[in-house]
Amino acid sequence: MTSTQITTPVRTPAGQSPAPRRSPRDRGTRLLATLFLAPTLVGIVVFTVVPIVGSVVLSLFQWNVIDSPSFAGTANYREIFGNSTVLVSFRNTLVFMVFAVALQMLVALALALTLTGRMPVWLRSVFRSAFFFPLVLSAASISVVMKYLFNQDFGVVNWLIGLVGIAPVPWLTSENAAMATVVIVYVWQQFGFSFLLFVGGLNNIPKEIHEAASLDGATGLRKHLHITLPLLSPTLLVATVVGVINALQVFEQPYVLTNGGPGDSTRTVVMVIYETAFEQLRFGEASAVGVLLFVLIMAVTALQFRLSRRFVHYQ
Amino acid sequence: MTDSHFTRRTLLRYGTYGAGAAALAGTAASWDRLTGADIPGRDDGSLVVATLGPAYGPEAISTLTEGFRKVHPDIKLRINAVQAVDWSDFFAKILTQIAAGTAPDLVYVATEGVQLFAQRLGVPLDRWVKRDAAQLKEYFADVHPSLVESMMYEGHLYQLPVEFNAADMYLNRQVLRRAGADFPAPDWTRNDFTTLLRAMKRSSGSQFTPYFWTNRLWGGVVPWLFNNGTNLLAESKAPGGAWLWDSFYPAAERRGRGGGFRWTTPQATDDRVEEAYDYLASLIHENLCTRPEGGNGQNLVGVFSTGRVGVTPAGGFWAGGLHLAGMKADAYDVQYFPRWRTQRMQFGAAGYALLRTSEKQDEAWEFIKYAARKDTLTALFDTNQTTPARRSLLTAGRYKETGPAHWPAFYGTLDKFPDTGPIPAPPQVAEVTEVLLKHTGTALASPRSVRPALRRMQSDLEKAMEREV
């Protein structure tokens, strides 16, 4: 810890502590901090707060780009709740989020645990780079390639499973398989981020704790369950929160792979926002869906932090 | 926690840095620098023409601009090639430009967007067409009236078609030989088609798909509705249009023509629509065709050219695509869509729409005329990436290198079957397309799902058609 200025509070007769008086030095520090933070704050206001407020306002209007907006009150929200496509898209997004985040965490954690074990450093670096590589590629380009690979008739995936006698799977054209395919493609691309967080988290766990547990006779699995996971829980929380927020905003993979189909089986909320706004020119309704998605993300994130009090252990 | 001790000297130092930075910024701000206005053509009074980027490469853009400059040196022209994956994506980007206050003067619009642009954004070309009638007689004599009619809305003409593509059937000659099948006759039937697919399947391995098609508005399920004598939406003709037909077309060709198509009542639950879906479902069940994926069919060129697909619906644009993929002119061929109850086929056309917001409407009209000229289209479509709207451009010489041997089928789809119709594309086309693709996917994704999917399609289409755009 670096040095801090300690001031002794002056007791009042009533025993209450008055607000500490700020020295000119304190005021200078605050001024400087404000100056440094100002560009970021301006950026947040201009690029985050204003669009959010703008979306909320726009959600109360009907606007098709061509004509002037007209006030619609809550009509857009009523329209949403009567629109089965929008409701299905929320259900799909939640289903996608549950499976994608769970699978992403499992894959990333399993690989991170494997790679923090005994392995030559160079090989570890190769794996880390390979796992992180998909994350820096464009989701749209990856999805175009995956669309070829998962094609029912000409795709490599069906050719490979055909070698072991499995019948071709309609990966992208069956209502049951399409969502699973989108999840697989998404997880393949995204798990590298959680993987890197977990590798960092695992490296921060003091070796002494594991050594002490070994001396007490703990096995590998017990050590992971009772030492590694609890100590990794703050990292798990961060990875899950980020993973959930990203998954709730999924767009490119289902848009390119299946275009939301067959039927609405892979249509997500952000796809609905895009289609409603930019294809059907109902910007007010699209904004209303966007506002609901924002509320959903806030609620899910708040719930995660709330639940984390029980499961997250800070050293 | 950070150190909170800051001395007066430190503050003075930072203050000096700040003053220095401000002085530098002030100096930089006073220099001449590039701004958005410096982008060539922007805000310089140019006539701005928005085209679908992938269809117009740098060479095409250069052809258009240089040729136009020679004819009209007084009109500055800028081609804004908008990159988009399909027409709906393109329209979305154009509308975004309009919302941003940077609307182009002219927009290249296909059948899918003709009525939307006409209703909300377009300027009828009637007065200029009437004014320059003498000049345009040669153009209209060279262009099939069906293409022109597809560019009309409520009695007015909004575009001069420059290209079109009818949904014909491409056949792989190598696969035909393998199946011991003859090239089909122009009047082949749906049953002949099924028999051919079965022969292809028998003679090929498990990795072979006889019929491949894409789930989309053009060339998907809709041609099967057309040849079964039905359509997605009830169709009729708007009154009017006589001013054009009487001026440019002989009596035989103007018979039955009106002021453009009207797409009204959804009819997804019509018996014939269900019959068409049942037929496609039976082909899937028999492994004669794949469940349709969404997309634009670009990934199909590779599998077709390597003999893994036997038949697929495509337009004249595929002649150029297959040639680029290395397919020899005699390795494939094209035939009309097979007859069912009718042999009516489907086409989509494109031309330039003039926007109401344009302040250069007379100049824009000059560009529209220039773009429809024979020499312009010859230079623009030299690789057969589409079918030119002018009949006279479809010659043996044009298809000698790229093929196919039966290239006259491209224009023959219009000439021999004059009832061949445009894509059903009302102003609500975006939502109609989405509903069609969505429920077609569901209808053909699993057995016995056709009827419930069509019922839901009908309900969604009704809602879409009731909506104001």
UniProtKB/TrEMBL annotation, chain A:
The keyword DNA-binding does not apply. GO terms for cellular component: plasma membrane. Residues 1-26 are annotated as: Disordered. It is a multi-pass membrane protein. Keywords: Cell membrane, Membrane, Transmembrane, Transmembrane helix, Transport. Residues 1-10 have a biased composition (Polar residues). This is ABC transporter permease subunit. It comes from Streptomyces broussonetiae.
UniProtKB/TrEMBL annotation, chain B:
Pfam families: SBP_bac_1. InterPro entries: Bact_solute-bd_prot1, SBP, TAT_signal. Signal peptide: none annotated. Gene3D superfamilies: Periplasmic binding protein-like II. PROSITE patterns: TAT. This is Extracellular solute-binding protein.
